[in-house]
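Continuing from yesterday's entry. The apo prediction looked reasonable, so today I'm repeating it with zinc ion included to see how the binding region is handled. Same sequence as before; SMILES copied from the compound registry.
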Amino acid sequence: MQAQAMFSQAMISQGVKDIGMLSQHRVKVYIRCRKCGETFILRGVRDAKGRVETGFKRCVCDNEEDFDIEPLS
Ligand SMILES: [Zn+2]
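Holo prediction written out below.
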């Protein structure tokens, strides 16, 4: 009986750990270049501040900063 109780305790701890990992949401991000109109859909990770990090660097037209960025779902 005691062993059974310890096993349950371990399962609860595991569950808490999983919820912690889910705080880093993987999201799709829609990016549109304001210079040439090219669009990109990338996968990013939302950080604790609500910003989305996609690793996107620049458009095919060399634009590096003028984008419409919109998270999807
Ligand atoms: Zn562009």
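Comparison notes:
- The longest strand covers residues 26-33.
- The CA atoms of residues 26 and 35 lie 27 Å apart.
Will overlay with the apo model tomorrow.
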